[in-house]
Amino acid sequence: MKIVADENMPLVQELFGSFSSVVSEAGRKINRDYLLDADVLLVRSVTQVNSGLLQDTKVKFVGSATIGTDHIDQAYLSEQGIKFAYAPGCNAQAVAEYVLAAIGYWADYAHKDLRKCKVGIIGAGNVGSRVTQVLELLGIEYCLNDPPLHEQGDSRQFVSLQNIQQCDVVTCHVPLTMQGQHATHHLINQQFLSQMPPGSLLINSSRGAVLDNTAALYCKQAGQDIDFVLDVWENEPNLNIELLNQSLIATPHIAGYSQEGKIRGTYQLYQAVCKWQGIEQEFVLKDLLPEAPKWNASAELRSDTGFLHQNLRRFYDIKSDDQRMRQKLAQVLRQSGATISEEFDNLRKNYPQRLEFLELM
Ligand SMILES: NC(=O)c1ccc[n+]([C@@H]2O[C@H](COP(=O)([O-])OP(=O)(O)OC[C@H]3O[C@@H](n4cnc5c(N)ncnc54)[C@H](O)[C@@H]3O)[C@@H](O)[C@H]2O)c1
Ligand SMILES: O=C(O)[C@H](O)[C@H](O)COP(=O)(O)O
């Protein structure tokens, strides 16, 4: 069997090497020529998987080691009888910890008492639910918006988008969808932003186009008092530098980039390929995950969320991710050579090791 895999997936050789030959390549460079004699394609989110990529290749299995699947033409795969697997929930914990770090930084910067703040969560799936666990741990109030889950009979209490607009912090955890009653493309638009209260915070770590980036920039340029924490950008990797300059925190799509999250992503595909091929699994997930010290956040912080950012920096300093991105992209703008897009990808490829630090149930 021949597997072609994105080079940013850890442990591919270790997990798949005993029953397959593995060729790794940069996700954006994987093209049809690489796949002509490949049986399996393993991608992350930067490879668009569609008929243009797969037509007349041997590929019979596509796996994406990610939560988001908007880069995959699943209708085409199913039409062609190509098996598809992805990695739901693999990096949900990392994103929840990113959101916590963002809120902690903002509270410190804008002098907010988090015990008096309410967080509005849009999308209550794997990531949104993990965010609720983190907020409960710290005793921070929140509300949820998720019309699809509400319609499916989820028993949690949901509120309208208008209610979410009124929160001190809004954080988005929806997939990017272009069609249907609950399409999320530009779900956060000019109208939504204009209703947010002064001094509020909007976090987008879902997909860039869930937030209308032009509207966000307009609202900052018009002097509206909203802070933005942006991990994902419209037209990634070619993001709008003016919007970056107007953001409180800007990061290069790394909210889910914990070591554990990436390893779980590869492992979930290993399980799926083994099942598809009837191969007995040789590896157990817990033997592959790093041992990381956990933070007893509940005891340390529940009583005083004012020090959240200062305490949390020991485990994850979101501002260092922001500074690295600003410095690298500023260098690109000063000198010719690499482009913004290339540097955005380099920041992601060379992202420093980050370990998960919260113990959640
Ligand atoms: N920045 C990152 O590194 C990173 C990491 C992981 C996931 N993500 C993104 O986050 C998204 C969410 O991840 P997840 O694991 O929670 O997915 P999930 O599928 O478990 O949950 C998504 C939830 O959004 C809800 N939803 C869909 N349309 C909605 C709408 N219009 N309004 C409100 N809710 C809506 C769904 O009903 C679902 O419950 C992913 O699709 C991915 O694009 C980004
Ligand atoms: O959907 C996901 O799981 C995340 O957005 C993931 O972190 C994307 O990472 P990438 O595929 O771009 O390496």
UniProtKB/TrEMBL annotation:
Major location (coarse): cytoplasm
Pfam families in the record: 2-Hacid_dh, 2-Hacid_dh_C, DUF3410
Keywords: Cytoplasm, NAD, Oxidoreductase, Pyridoxine biosynthesis
Domain D-isomer specific 2-hydroxyacid dehydrogenase NAD-binding: residue ranges: 105-255
Pathway in which the depicted protein is active: Cofactor biosynthesis; pyridoxine 5'-phosphate biosynthesis; pyridoxine 5'-phosphate from D-erythrose 4-phosphate: step 2/5
Binding positions for substrate per the UniProt entry: S45, T66, Y257
Start and end residues of each Erythronate-4-phosphate dehydrogenase dimerisation domain: 288-359
Enzyme class (EC, first level): oxidoreductase
This enzyme's EC code(s): 1.1.1.290
Subcellular location: Cytoplasm
Catalysed reactions, as listed in the record: 4-phospho-D-erythronate + NAD(+) = (R)-3-hydroxy-2-oxo-4-phosphooxybutanoate + NADH + H(+)
Domain D-isomer specific 2-hydroxyacid dehydrogenase catalytic: 22-276
SUPFAM superfamilies assigned: Formate/glycerate dehydrogenase catalytic domain-like (SSF52283), NAD(P)-binding Rossmann-fold domains (SSF51735)
Family to which the UniProt record says this protein belongs: Belongs to the D-isomer specific 2-hydroxyacid dehydrogenase family. PdxB subfamily.
HAMAP family xrefs: PdxB
Function: Catalyzes the oxidation of erythronate-4-phosphate to 3-hydroxy-2-oxo-4-phosphonooxybutanoate.
Protein name: Erythronate-4-phosphate dehydrogenase
